[in-house]
Prior knowledge:
Layout: H1 5-12, E1 18-25, E2 34-41, E3 44-49, E4 57-60, E5 64-70, E6 73-78, E7 81-89, H2 93-106, H3 108-126
Amino acid sequence: MxxxxxxxxxxxxxxxxxxxxxxxxxxxxxxxxKKRLVKLVVxxxxxxxxxxxxxxxxxxxxxxxxxxxxxxxxSIAFLDEAERKYVFECDTEEQCAEWIDxxxxxxxxxxxxxxxxxxxxxxxxxxxxxxxxxxxxxxxRFQVSNGRPLxxxxxxxx
Length: 158
């Protein structure tokens, strides 16, 4: 995937869903844990040297697995390179759980699945497609897994 470096820097300056100084170890053999400012912005995890304003790296949180390593440590590994893990050390067990939860919820796929679930539930309860009013009800990205669009049912006989 290609990124425009200037746009990523601008994105890194946006308000974050979560930010903290964490210990971080990169995926290369011999990498050591270093203190980094870590910021979650939309579905990117930016990391900075603690005394600098520009990020030194960013992880796109798609097609990845987030796992708890121990009570205060979690890792992120990408599905196409599962053996390469980024490891993050938190100050508390609670902070670790909050980071894991936030990262899982930041992915586009998580948000898409939630949208489809709630769309289906609203349709089941009301008989109406909530996306229809926005003109996007037939878009493929909003379809349930079988690929068929929701069809409004006739509720007049109920």
